[in-house]
Amino acid sequence: MKKVILAVNAGSSSVKVSVYSAELGQPPAQIAEAQVSGLTAAPATLKYLRGAQAVIKNREVDEKVNGQRDAFSLILDTLVRDHDLPEIKCKDDIGIICHRIVHGGDYTKPQLILDGTYHHLEELNDLAPLHNANSLGIVHLCIQELPGARNIACFDSQFHSTIPEHIRTYPINQDIARSNRLRKYGFHGISYSFITRATAEFLGKKPDEVNLIALHLGSGASACAIKAGKSWDTSMGLTPLAGLPGATRSGSVDPSLVFHYASDVGKLSPASTKDLHISRAEEILNKESGWKALTGTTNFAVIAGQSDDDGGSSSSSSSSSSSSKRLAFDLFVDRVCGFVGSYFVSLRGRVDALVFAGGIGEKSARLRAAVVEQAACLGFALDERANNEVGAADGEGWVVQDVGREGVTPRVLVCRTDEQFEMARMCAEDEELWGV
């Protein structure tokens, strides 16, 4: 029996929903996709694709959209009203809704969301106050408005449950650490799960046969050492803040830095609510740092020189802007290479491939070239032409492409990761999640 699966990915400023038709035990087939963007910078816009057809192209939203719940409601309404999408004639046609939940605590696999699961996830909000709440708001809405659907939580942290104890443990009082659940959890795990399977298939191996250094580089960025197909180490920690810098995140800094930064860092932010407690320190390091703090832009294409937003700026300000972008670019390359080197040693040099993924990893040829050049001492080598032509040969259909120099191992690969597909696949392959 076929089921319609909605894979929901709620970000800080957008909600993306991919729609699949699936049978138990079979790879799901995508039939539609919708996204509401610009939730933090009005006006919000709606994009809707049915199959390969662009039905709505970045239309400004007329409806009142205040946050992720409203955005999901708009997307759901768009799907139900589309008479050319016969798989969804009404809300009851939706069988499974899988939700990307950033922090899953000690959960090691996706969970059917019942009352107990939902309340446990609420308790985890303190570990990820800037991430989980938006997703749980949509979950609550689905439970209310789609009572016939099975809601499944897929966790960014679950892939990293295999990290060894000596790597995931922080050197602090262990009684306090255990009682407060303070350890490395890791994130972007749904993406790394997809990357592992797709890369293994590309290399002609089984997933449990590959050792990878994978880089998920986007506005949020992380690195992962994958040993025998399982997470061995990753750059993010207790929260997604640790590790690499991002669009607005600082990444790892001296823990005492924040206390020298401002006098009010321990106080609650004005953005806090009765359900969401955010300190000024968390706000500064998560939302007021990273490339935004260094350059004034969160667009890495501008930083990498692949786009230009300087407009008619004067020569002096243009020079200053160029200098800050160069600093941000060089800083990011340095931090990425630091993890590449560390993980190469941690994997004892047995590495099948260095894999670039995420929006930046997929699109920035300059960044890939800079990282591989700096990591050349480890045996990585780039084919300059292949690197500059990523995506050109096979249009939109590619998943993994080889940009490494011919005959050189380990390989250098680019993977177009797909978190929505990975969530839908997890549901379609698990009888318990499917509802047999």
From TrEMBL:
SUPFAM superfamilies: Actin-like ATPase domain. One of its GO terms (biological process) is acetate metabolic process. Keywords: ATP-binding, Kinase, Magnesium, Metal-binding, Nucleotide-binding, Transferase. PROSITE patterns: ACETATE_KINASE_1, ACETATE_KINASE_2. Its EC number is 2.7.2.1. It catalyses: acetate + ATP = acetyl phosphate + ADP. GO terms for molecular function: acetate kinase activity; ATP binding; magnesium ion binding. The record marks 188, 249 as: Transition state stabilizer. The active site is at 156 (proton donor/acceptor). Its cofactor is Mg(2+). It holds the Pfam family Acetate_kinase. Belongs to the acetokinase family. This is Probable acetate kinase. It comes from Thermothielavioides terrestris (strain ATCC 38088 / NRRL 8126) (Thielavia terrestris).
